Amino acid sequence: MTGLAADSWLAGGHSPRVGRRLAAVGLMTAGALAGSLLLRVDMALPVLAAAVVIAPAVVALRFGR
């Protein structure tokens, strides 16, 4: 968020990374929304969802190269 504000035209800057920063903020917001909706159903669902997302990353880091 700070990077977006610093790169805005109001601050006098412009960066080619604005799209990437907007995508990062959007994805963080989507993750927070998904987690809060899952918490409304059951406490274990966000933990399970995180495990499903993290497990392939761990396998890729361990056996990827």
Keywords, please?
65 residues; mainly alpha; 3 helices
Poorly predicted residue ranges: none
Supply the number of helical segments: 3
SSE order, one letter for each helix or strand: HHH
Largest sheet: none
Derived from helix and strand composition plus strand pairing, the structural class reads mainly alpha
Gyration radius, in Å: 17 Å
Mean pLDDT: 83
Multimerization state: single chain
Overall form: flat
Could you tell me how far the N terminus lies from the C terminus, measured between alpha carbons in angstroms?
Answer: 34 Å
Strand content: under 5%
Number of strands: 0
Helix amount? over 70%
Descriptive report:
It is a single chain. The protein has 65 residues and is mostly helical. Helix content is 77%, strand content 0%. It has helices spanning 2-7, 18-41, 44-63. The longest helix has 24 residues, at 18-41. The protein is flat, with a radius of gyration of 17 Å. The two termini are 34 Å apart.
Sequence-ordered SSE layout with sheet pairings:
Layout: H1 2-7, H2 18-41, H3 44-63
Summarize the structure in short:
Helix content is 77%, strand content 0%. With 65 residues, it is mainly alpha-helical.
